[in-house]
Amino acid sequence: MSKIEEAQTILKELGLPDAQQNEISGYTLLALCNLKEKDKWSKAFKQSHGISKGIMAFIAENFRKEYAPNTRETFRRQVLHQLVQAGIVDYNPDIPNLPVNSPRAHYAISEKVQFYFIQATPRRKIYTLIKRN
């Protein structure tokens, strides 16, 4: 299973609706976890990313998947907003009092979800851990 397929499976196991189990959501999860194709989920770490220079740049550099600059709003409205609502991603964790329209807005994987990734091993897949807890 490729890393993008694993990410989409994790999104499903986290209970996200079908619309947020797509490729763009999977790549976003991988970017927020700082994971490349060969990385293990247990190597995920929390680091804040903006959309264009963070998430979209990570995807382009590590997965050779380019998104047009005008898809920034798609990332924000159709992916990140739902991940924040589900408690999977934190919005502005480094500067929580940023205005909503700030160009410095950023996102990071939540501590709760990162905890599952740290426990993941080849035998204990992340989605098995999530289902158990």
- Determine and state the CATH class: Mainly Alpha
Low-confidence segments: 129-133
Average pLDDT, all residues: 87
CATH topology (level 3) name: Arc Repressor Mutant, subunit A
Distance between the termini: 24 Å
- How many helices? The count is 6
Shape: globular
Total number of strands: 2
User: What is the CATH superfamily?
Assistant: BsuBI/PstI restriction endonuclease, N-terminal domain
Major beta-sheet overview = 2 strands, antiparallel
Q: What CATH architecture label applies? A: Orthogonal Bundle
Backbone structural class: mainly alpha
**Rg, alpha carbons:** 14 Å
Strand order, main sheet: write it out. Answer: 1-2
Please describe the topology of this protein.
Blueprint: H1 3-13, H2 23-33, H3 51-63, H4 72-85, E1 89-91, E2 107-109, H5 111-119, H6 126-132
Antiparallel strand pairs: 1-2
Helix pairs in contact: 1-2, 2-3
Characterization of the model:
The protein has helices at 3-13, 23-33, 51-63, 72-85, 111-119, 126-132, and strands spanning 89-91, 107-109. It has 133 residues and is mainly alpha-helical. A two-stranded antiparallel ribbon has the order 1-2. α1 (3-13) packs across α2 (23-33) and α2 (23-33) packs across α3 (51-63). The two termini are 24 Å apart. 31% of the residues are buried. The model is unreliable at 129-133 (pLDDT under 50).
